[in-house]
Amino acid sequence: MARADLPGGVTVDPIPPGVGKEVMITYSGKLTTESGSEPITMMIGYGSKDQMFSQREVPMHREGDHYAASFVVDASDTLNLAFKDSHGHIDDNQQQYWSLVTNSNSMSYA
Questions:
Q1: Residue 3 and residue 102: Cα distance in Å, rounded?
Q2: Confidence band (pLDDT; 50, 70, 90) for 1?
Q3: Whole-model pTM?
Q4: What was the pLDDT predicted at 108?
Q5: Count H helices, E strands: the chain?
Q6: pLDDT for 5-20, tens place per residue?
Q7: Distance from CA of residue 63 to its chain's centroid?
Q8: Segment 40-50, tens digit of pLDDT
Q9: What's the pLDDT score for residue 103?
Q10: Contact residues for 15 (Cβ-Cβ < 8 A; gap 6+)
């Protein structure tokens, strides 16, 4: 599996993210350029962008010029990402979110 650099300063490793596996997300988008915007929080949800489920927020930590966080993928569906700063500003890729299809090949249904 490889790493993917997405537009808007988002990196996903590994790609595709696997259900039950940890995925690392880095963010160096527009919210990182504002003074006093720390902390940055990653917002995740699954499914269609209009009816996401299993939504949650994951705190990110600064690593040089970007923020990073990891989490375990919960669902075999579309994973949607957005980012929020301490002022409540949201970078959601112009309401399109950063969306990835998760990989469930390693799951057992027995």
A1: 14
A2: low
A3: 0.90
A4: 42
A5: 0, 10
A6: 999 999 999 999 999 9
A7: 16
A8: 999 999 999 99
A9: 87
A10: 1, 2, 3, 4, 100
Quickly tell me which residue has 């994973």 as its tokens. 79
What is the 3-state composition of the chain as percent helix, strand, coil, each rounded to the nearest 5? 5, 50, 45
Q: CA dist 87 to 36, 71, 106, Å?
A: 8, 24, 39
How far apart CA 68 and CA 53 sit, in angstroms, is 23
Instruction: Walk me through the domains of the chain, giving residue ranges and CATH numbers.
Output: 2-101 (2.60.40.10)
Beta strands in the chain (DSSP E): 2-6, 10-15, 22-27, 41-46, 53-59, 61-63, 66-72, 78-84, 90-91, 98-101
In residues, how long is the chain?
Answer: 110
Q: Measured between alpha carbons, how far is 96 from 90 in angstroms, rounded to an integer?
A: 12
Enter the tokens of residue 28: 């160096």
- Inform me whether the pLDDT recorded for 109 exceeds 80: no
